Amino acid sequence: MSRIGPAEPWVVREIGLPSDDAGHRQAESLFALANGHIGLRGNLDEPQPSGMPGTFLNSLYEVRDLTYPEAGFAFPERTETVVNAPNGKPINLTVGGETFDLRTGEVRRHERVLDLRAGTLTREVEWVSPGGVEVRLRSVRVVSFERPSVAAIRYSVEADAELRVDSDVAVDEAQPPPRDDPRASAVIEDAFVPVFHDRDLLVHRTRRSGITVAVAVTHLGPEGEIVTGPDRLRWTTTAHGSIAFDKIFAYGWDGLDQRDKARADRDAAARAGFDELLAEQRRYLDDFWAYADIELDGDELVQQGARFGLFHVLQAGAQAGPHPIPSKGLTGNGYDGHTLWDNESYVLPVLTYTHPACVGQALRWRHSTLDQARERARELKLDGAAFPWRTISGPECSGYWPAGTAALHINADIADAVLRYHAASGDDVFMREAGDELIAETAKLWRKVAYLDEEGVAHIAGVTGPDEYTALMDDNVFTNLMARRNLRAAALDEVSGHIAERLAVPYDERRQVHEQSAGFTRLDEWKSFADEDYPLMLHHHYLNLYRKQVVKQADLVLAMVLCGDEFTLDEKRRNFEYYEARTVRDSSLSAPVQAVLAAELGHLSLAHDYLAEAALLDLRAGGESGGDGLHIAACAGAWIAVVMGFGGLRDTGGRLSLSPRIPPRLNRLRFRLRWRGAGLSVTVTPEKVTYQVSSGGIEFRHYGDVVSLNEGEEVTFKLDPIDDRPAPPTPRPPGRAE
Amino acid sequence: MSRIGPAEPWVVREIGLPSDDAGHRQAESLFALANGHIGLRGNLDEPQPSGMPGTFLNSLYEVRDLTYPEAGFAFPERTETVVNAPNGKPINLTVGGETFDLRTGEVRRHERVLDLRAGTLTREVEWVSPGGVEVRLRSVRVVSFERPSVAAIRYSVEADAELRVDSDVAVDEAQPPPRDDPRASAVIEDAFVPVFHDRDLLVHRTRRSGITVAVAVTHLGPEGEIVTGPDRLRWTTTAHGSIAFDKIFAYGWDGLDQRDKARADRDAAARAGFDELLAEQRRYLDDFWAYADIELDGDELVQQGARFGLFHVLQAGAQAGPHPIPSKGLTGNGYDGHTLWDNESYVLPVLTYTHPACVGQALRWRHSTLDQARERARELKLDGAAFPWRTISGPECSGYWPAGTAALHINADIADAVLRYHAASGDDVFMREAGDELIAETAKLWRKVAYLDEEGVAHIAGVTGPDEYTALMDDNVFTNLMARRNLRAAALDEVSGHIAERLAVPYDERRQVHEQSAGFTRLDEWKSFADEDYPLMLHHHYLNLYRKQVVKQADLVLAMVLCGDEFTLDEKRRNFEYYEARTVRDSSLSAPVQAVLAAELGHLSLAHDYLAEAALLDLRAGGESGGDGLHIAACAGAWIAVVMGFGGLRDTGGRLSLSPRIPPRLNRLRFRLRWRGAGLSVTVTPEKVTYQVSSGGIEFRHYGDVVSLNEGEEVTFKLDPIDDRPAPPTPRPPGRAE
């Protein structure tokens, strides 16, 4: 849809203009700039053409009622939906009386560049108006990592004509109609009531959730006229030949001093100036890449996709601060802007090893919602905390409980993220203030929900695991193993310890494979794969999906990745082969996990394929993947596939282990990570691996052997050649082999 | 709530007036008159006080959109809801300028009598107005069984004052707000647009479903003035001292000639006159009771309740004709006026043996919806027909699929009803025209949905059985055994025959009981019974209910009743004991079935208790049971408990078997039934049973021995004494023992 140019190492370049609305939506997501606190979709400077407007402030949401055809006890009655905030981006241009609109006239050149090291979106346009005026336009947009509430645009235009710029802050922009897809967002129209307006500031409040938001703006450059009203602030300037200015705007919506905060942040940014904002941005990203970059010599496309993904993971998490990290980051309104389990299970692991400061914050956000999770547990007649399947501010917002509330594993996913973060960071203060309580409260739920049968085996019945093509199953292996970890870490009492050790791990003796959940391998097979059937959930009733052996996304395979020491190598091989044939990857969460286990089992080219699927999912999508926001977990998935897959990183029990290997199509592979303040870089070639410590001291295992390195040291090990095992001989689902 | 007087054999008498809205709602249901085609709730003659208005025409419904917080593929997007039709009941009275309103003045006497042999509701009132005028009012209401579209009211009033009667047809009456209960109906306000009005007729059309309804009215008696408008027709008469008249009204809403039909039916009824309507009604009911009555000497309360139930079963089914029989009959709008599986599994069996003519009609209605069921099967990627869990005109209207679409057993329930009707009636024409196709199309679904494992065992996975406190289970015994019967009857081909014989019947070897569904007996026990927790579904999330061994309603026990020859007596005993301890009877469908198996196993007093529960559920409810319509299946349940329970009637394989017994608290028990045109009466005492044939010849089994009797013959057998076995020693759920 978007015309993304050939792969370049550090930039993503769009050549030409999207040809339709879907293409615009896709490009707006790809070119979104965000810092975790605020996010600007990559809309053009001028309001039209546009796919979907989008200015997102983390946790600026509206409340909506949920109504059910047939409700049940404790079905959530309200949900939260991210709203499109007052938008500081629009810059309208008039050239000799003609509106600058790329749907008219002739577009001679249109190029947008997302620079992953500069942290900027640059746009260059050459356009001839219907009246024949040649126009050159250039803009640079930045959302500051250092100044969480600040965004800025440098805008310049040249043409041999009278030029007029109307630069706006726009409120309640028109929204496209909602898509007919359960993963899409509801549309919130007319979200705001005006509270206050001044020549430099608009203040609004959401109607039901009552959140006040202030946006302060200034224009640095020529003199301009300002017209302001309740729902618009417009700065106008005119000139002949050229106009250039910097637009700097800042938001306030947390706490009680929104106006003062927005104005102060804007003023500080304006005093620093646009060039300094760029310089800060570059320094911030240099620091990030120093510990996060991965290099993949030999696959330029995936190289670009992996960096693009890491950049967006950072954009989603960096300054999320006291708020959650939504599944779409701040790039779109998909999933209503909710955070789901992929935050803890996909995004936080990557940030734990690359940018750990924001992981503690993200988990403190979870902790801040603990009272709501306790209340939900009470409502469900459970103990401890029952964290929501999807939410913005803490309440359960899931409207289909078999694939929502029933996915109790969210509790264990949070505990696992806490354990990982603590092991990798050594942040004991966090544990005392939040982590220990999170682990204890999540564990209490498992102690209550599990029961012992008369043979002394513990069971967890009627829950849904990661695979959403089955639901309400007994003894989901992933859930049980993660609950075991959660219970062990909490060490609540003797009973919970007893349960932890005795939780069932269903195994099919006949087929010699684990059952994803009890009885799964005895279900009917899914026989009717057809290309046009994907994703299956949009073409088949759950009745049909749930009762068959068809797997939406890695579930048992994820258990084998995160709880690898609970399986023998032979079990992993047999299980992987069995589930490969039945996994249709209708979720973007699947490929990264399959990549990791494929790499562990020596299916290196297959792992490479799955890495590519994750890395290119949104960036080079065939369809409109990511139009309503990028798949941030899939963005994280590229790192997971490389570092956990080819790097063999495992952290079970708080110990760092690496088992590097390289797939045939790569010449050299390098990744970096942080571990308790130390920085480690790992360079892998077919023959050897070199570990270099840039700062601090580190101890880890290399293929099981302990390695200790001090700051500045490096060590090289020869690698035994690993035969690239072909993909398992069982056929993968037709249409899902590639 | 309603002040129902002491039990009388053939009437239900209310003494005094309900004291609140809930009491009015309850009484309006109890005193509803209906014939299956039209139904009038037992509202007072004057519009107020009132609980809920209700004039129901079978299959006069409006369409509503169903919206889901998170929709899935093939979730129904529309539903149907019964609407309150233009109401011919209201008669306003003014006495010396004062409105006759029983909430004012002094009510000296208020009595309503539902006469189960006359088929009338009679009301007698003595009231003193606030101004001191003494008023005597009497009304008799009838909904004609012989004239399906006709209702009539005989009204007389006496007082020493100027009297004024305004007799209305009222459209779009105000509705009470909806109750917060998933079993309640949606409220359809402003359902009608006016089409036409004349001095004797109103014609309206529903807004979305576009159903035209005409009501024609006439008043026989004194002269009156008529005022009519789009939404009201009012006949007014005045006199001093007394007024008496008959109001006769008729509806037309089927076919294209609604006006002519309503007028013609009204005119024919008016020509016959009110007395003749009463005489017809009495003849119709005499015929009914001759083959349907049950006599229970020694329990006057249950005697009354059982006859009350049978009367309402007849009222629900008699003239349902080309339309379905809703779960609430035409007594209220509960369940949105939908028909569910209890029609085929509870109501039709009773009518099959008591009033078979309307069973063929009811099953022909199912047949008329076959194309919709085929389309639904296609949508679900199944074969044959997938009949809807709940509907009025045929489409699936279930908005919670785990306890709706997943309950595939509805298909087998329909097939079973066809087989029973054919066996009992010998109606081969019906089979050729509808029955054979129903059996074949329902069976095709089972052939598709069942699969064979590598051991050659057939399974049906991911379905919901009768017990709605579990869902999406594998190999529900009831479903599998009923599917087996369906497949055997259809005899589609070798494959389906193979599947039928090999369908799994899960059995727990350790506990020596059948599993309601695979794995059920290994689930956690429900430990926290508390009185205030019932019904559990209104106090516990399904997450909690589904994962535990708590049973809403007879499920495996129903399988043992309907498919008794699939179980040994020992299995039945052990299973019954096991499931008694876990069945909370939160559905009115439970007690009748438990009564039958309890009686079979010799728990005669327990069976009597369950019979009483079914017979008295709505009639002598502690709470507001039945306020939005009677539980017609529970009404049928009294007959089921008596005839299948104490009579031991079984009809497996199309053979009639009886094994009569009598519980200790009864002196004598008599029931009647029809079998292939013959009429059989069965009289049971503790010592003996006497079979008498009133018409036709009949062959049946008495405790396994073949008995053949011709018209007018009778035979008496001594009965071996049956020890009344106490209830199973396992405790029944606390709060659910009585």
TrEMBL record, chains A, B:
Keyword Hydrolase: yes
Top-level division of the source organism's lineage: Bacteria
Disordered, as annotated region: 719-738
One Pfam family this sequence matches: Glyco_hydro_65C
Domain called Glycoside hydrolase family 65 C-terminal: residue spans: 649-709
Example GO molecular function: hydrolase activity
InterPro entries per record: 6-hairpin_glycosidase_sf, 6hp_glycosidase-like_sf, Gal_mutarotase_sf_dom, GH65_N, Glyco_hydro_65_C, Glyco_hydro_65_M, Glyco_hydro_65_N, Malt_Pase/Glycosyl_Hdrlase
Keywords linked to the UniProt accession: Glycosidase, Hydrolase
Start and end residues of each Glycoside hydrolase family 65 central catalytic domain: 307-639
Pro residues bias spans: 727-738
Protein name (record): Glycoside hydrolase family 65 protein
Source organism of the structure: Paractinoplanes lichenicola
